[in-house]
Specification:
- It is built from six helices and ten strands.
- It is of the alpha/beta class.
- It has a five-stranded parallel β-sheet with strand order 1-5-4-2-3, with helices on both faces.
- Helix 3 packs parallel to helix 5.
């Protein structure tokens, strides 16, 4: 499933939760203060703020602490090599890496650089792509580059029972790409964040 732009902006999240998360991001440090909750580096294009807040709310609901570079007071005022060093430090520290994969993020040099660095340090069990297409467009129009297909994706599934009789409740899941036998492994998003 490819989410549509605006899907997450409809997520009802208390402003106090978002504001507290944003406050913590401003002083985020790679230290033990966050070890009680899973930490997520959320790679995104800065223009995607509406969807970003909704995704933050969803991840916070599952107990994660989110890092967003554009909200970090420790980032240099002007983009520089120090910017890249800070991003590398935080990606290494965070438990998970998620790319908010909008068309603009896929076209962004920074998002692609972050994805490549995340790949080196988090692949495959600790990173995922959250695909978001333009409103009103078809899934086949989504610009998701071919290389994004090698990463687990976050999706929303209705309740179902697999061919082995295992029941899966309705909700958000992380789906790994099919393995060499065509088997797709899925994990509830809440559980994946804790792994």
């Amino acid at each position: 499933m490819i989410f549509e732009r605006g899907y997450f902006s409809n997520t009802k999240v208390a402003d106090s939760i978002i504001n507290e998360s944003l406050r913590q991001i401003k002083t985020f440090s790679a230290s033990s203060e966050y070890t009680s909750k899973p930490t997520v580096f959320l790679s995104h294009k800065h223009d995607d703020l509406d969807d970003l807040k909704g995704v933050m709310g969803l991840l916070e609901k599952y107990g994660a602490k989110i890092y967003i570079d554009s909200m970090d007071n420790k980032m240099p005022k002007e983009t520089s090599g120090d910017t890249a060093k800070r991003i590398k430090e935080v990606i290494k520290f965070c438990d998970k890496f998620i790319l908010l994969a909008t068309d603009k993020a896929i076209e962004s040099y920074w998002c692609n650089w972050e994805l490549g660095f995340g790949d080196t340090h988090k692949y495959i069990d600790n990173m995922a792509v959250l695909p978001i297409k333009e409103k009103g467009s078809y899934d086949h129009n989504y610009k998701g580059n071919e290389y994004l297909q090698i990463y687990p994706q976050i999706s929303y599934n209705k309740a179902f029972t697999n061919m082995h009789g295992k029941y899966f409740k309705e909700g958000y899941y992380v789906e790994k790409p099919a393995n060499e036998n065509g088997i797709v492994y899925i994990t509830e998003l809440s559980n994946w964040l804790k792994e």
